[in-house]
Design brief:
alpha+beta; Multidrug efflux transporter AcrB transmembrane fold; Alpha-Beta Plaits; 4-stranded antiparallel β-sheet; 7% strand; elongated
């Protein structure tokens, strides 16, 4: 069926209809996709696990505490000691701060430190949902007010951190898109050696992104799909990278067929017929892998799944319809100056990958055993991976004001008054709960209970960084104490509790989702290759590649970049992208091996497959690795670690796992790789070249519209 579709899509009339359809879709998608930021949900509930205690506490806190409030600290420091004039000036500023837009409640302060060198003023802002986006402007207003000669001021606390985060993510989508497109264009220019050809894959990838964003906008607005800043940023990288990969595979196969067929429409029909199953399997693997994220407890992780799946689904459709239409519309000249003439020799058969295959053929078993051992040694680096989370001061790759201010307050013995533990309990046990909270190290004096509708609310400041492990230990002790109060039904929330529950949920998601993804990928490979042995081996090589990438990356994090650890959700994100995307290259290779096996046998077919696909798969790997490295341009440790690890893993997949390890195993096992299919029982030496049945039928019933160039 897909062969018939391939032929019709490349007709002289249908190619124009396909182009018009996608141009209309581009206009609609770009119009509404530009509004995607408007329907983002960056509220706490869009990130938190729904079953977490802090989430349940947040629901009960509504009568007492507005989750949209953002406590902010203005921190002052004079190393030689604050003067009375400094304190008087800060006191006068309180009234001016209270008049700022969005200020809610009283402004508290200034509160001096015991050493007399620092003080802080606490103000609470409330701009409603997504109010953190307003914090950069609010922070700038605070800076203008809090100016005292000789005194250094910092905007810190939750508000300062929100302002810094907002500035980091400001324009992130455009920055990532332009950076990704830039590196992809450079790689395509180098790969194609053509000043024109790169335009078609890039245009198709941009169409896929715009249409994806438009579709996601409607689903977010009308169907309850959760989209946040993180998922929208990753969408751009994923669509550009994967789309260019699919384009590279299709264009490479089209170039081969142009040397075999005089008519370009006919050449594209054959290219689509032979390349689409691999592209479809690749896209399906990524889509299924992303949809497995729906099993996550973390709402932010679960929300990424459908967003990424939609992006890949649309990208697949664009690359097997619009790109072929564009290629047959423009003709062979687009390959200039390396135009593939009809009847010319295919250069890949004598290229570098053909020579690599010939070297592996000599001693395949020694090659794959040695390669496996080296990758296994690289996996040992994972033993140093610390997924306990990052303290606030370790979350950025550059110095930011809110972190510097927080460190300054700690140095002078001032507790960040914006970080509190919040407890709700049954009103009749409020005093017992308050008593249970009293005397815990790192916890300030609990407030008097506020009672409403039978529920009591208590609050106490927490010493230490909001996301530090020591603070998490304090929150767990508070929970143990208040949970032990009979009849209180106490729930503990607050920012540190939220971070703690996020860590717990991420660790659970790692344990649950990774096995599900492995199972789904295995089933897809079995359906594609119609075998059991080959899919199991391929899955094993990808897991080995993932472990090696994680091991090497962990050592780089610690000893080269000086990162203090990783986010708890990092292993899952790295695994999803590396396995779902890394398996692509094995799919591209093994589908060609299977195709050639039916004519030549597995050993000869593996050499032809590596020779033919080696260059395009290497280029595809470079493209995807480069696009993920672009994430490092954002000064967040999590994204820098994710981008580096995925890029490293993809390079291992393309340069070592696919080209050396898998090829060596194929050459060693031969036909046994296809067990239990009929291919496994064939005698390689008795095989004779056969023609594709569709090709024979196509030539017998060649349609007039496919004749001539």
């Amino acid at each position: 069926m897909h062969a018939e579709i391939a032929g019709r899509l490349t007709g002289r009339v249908t190619k124009w209809l396909v182009l018009v359809f996608w141009l209309v879709a581009l206009v609609v998608g770009a119009t509404f996709g530009s509004k995607l930021t408007d329907v983002q949900n960056n509220e706490t509930s869009s990130w938190l696990p729904a079953t977490a205690e802090s989430t349940q506490a947040l629901d009960k806190l509504t009568p007492f505490y507005d989750p949209d409030t953002i406590p902010t600290v203005v921190a002052y420091e004079r190393e030689s000691g604050l003067t009375q004039d400094d304190i008087a000036a800060a006191t006068e500023q309180v009234a001016e701060i209270a008049q700022l837009d969005g200020v809610e409640g009283d402004v508290v302060g200034p509160i001096p430190s015991e050493d007399g060198q620092a003080m802080q003023t606490v103000v609470t802002f409330n701009f409603g949902a997504n109010g953190w986006m307003e914090m950069p402007a609010a922070a700038e207003s605070l800076r203008e007010i809090a100016q005292i000669d000789g005194v250094t001021t910092y905007i810190t606390g939750a508000g300062g951190q929100a302002a810094d985060a907002s500035e980091v993510f400001e324009g992130i989508d455009g920055t990532l898109l332009y950076a990704a497109l830039s590196v992809v264009i450079v790689i395509l220019l180098f790969t194609y050696r053509s000043p024109v050809l790169w335009l078609l894959p890039i245009f198709s990838a941009v169409v896929a992104l715009m249409v994806s964003q438009g579709l996601i906008y409607f689903l977010a607005r009308d169907a309850g799909l959760t989209v946040n800043g993180q998922s929208q940023a990753i969408l751009s990288i994923l669509v550009i990278g994967a789309g260019t990969d699919y384009a590279l595979l299709l264009v490479a196969r089209y170039r081969e067929e142009l040397r075999r067929h005089e008519d370009r429409h006919e050449a594209m029909a054959f290219a689509l017929h032979r390349a689409t199953p691999a592209i479809l399997a690749s896209a399906a693997t990524v889509v299924v892998g992303m949809l497995c994220l729906l099993f996550a407890e973390m709402n932010s992780t679960a929300g990424l799944g459908p967003v990424a799946a939609i992006g890949i689904g649309v990208t697949f459709l664009v690359m097997v319809t619009l790109l072929p239409a564009l290629l047959v519309i423009v003709g062979r000249w687009v390959f200039w100056p390396r135009r593939p003439a009809f009847g010319s020799v295919e250069p890949t058969q004598s290229g570098i990958w053909a020579r690599v295959a010939a070297r592996i053929k000599v001693r395949p078993r020694a090659v794959w055993v040695t390669t496996t051992l080296l990758l296994a040694v690289a996996c040992l680096g994972v033993l140093r991976l610390d997924t306990s989370g990052l303290a606030t001061e370790d979350q950025y790759t550059t110095e930011v004001e809110s972190i510097e201010g927080q460190q300054m307050l700690a140095e002078h013995g001032l507790v960040d008054a914006s970080n509190t533990v919040q407890v709700v309990a049954n009103a009749d046990q409020a005093d017992a709960v308050r008593q249970a909270m009293t005397g815990i190290e790192g916890v300030g004096e609990p407030s008097e209970p506020v009672v409403q509708d039978g529920v009591a609310y208590l609050e106490a400041t927490l010493a230490g960084d909001v996301a530090a492990q020591s603070t998490f230990d304090t929150v767990e002790e508070v929970r143990d104490r208040v949970h032990a109060v009979d009849g209180a039904e106490a729930l503990v929330g607050g920012w540190s509790a939220i971070y703690l529950d996020t860590q717990i949920a991420a660790q659970r998601d790692n344990a649950v989702i990774i096995p599900i993804i492995l199972l789904m990928v295995l089933l897809i490979l079995m359906a594609l290759l119609r075998a059991v042995t080959a899919p199991l081996i391929l899955l094993g090589t990808v897991v080995l590649s993932f472990g090696a990438a994680m091991g090497i990356a962990t050592l780089l994090f610690e000893f080269v970049f000086g990162f203090e650890g990783t986010d708890p959700g990092f292993p899952l994100f790295a695994f999803v992208f590396l396995v779902a995307l890394g398996i692509d290259y094995n799919i591209f290779l093994m589908t060609r091996v299977r195709e050639e096996t039916m004519q030549r046998g597995t050993r000869a077919g593996s050499i032809v497959a590596l020779s033919s696909t080696g260059g395009v798969i290497t280029s595809a790997g470079l493209v995807l690795a480069a696009t993920f490295l672009v994430l490092g341009s954002i000064p967040l440790v999590f994204l820098a670690e994710l981008g580096l690890t995925v890029a490293l893993g993809i390079l291992l997949d393309t340069m070592i796992v696919r080209s050396v390890l898998v090829t060596a195993i194929n050459l060693d096992l031969g036909q046994r790789i296809w067990w239990p299919s009929a291919l496994a029982r064939q005698d390689e030496s008795a095989l004779t070249p056969q023609r594709d049945p569709w090709e024979v039928e196509h030539e017998a019933h060649r349609r007039p519209e496919l004749v001539g160039d």
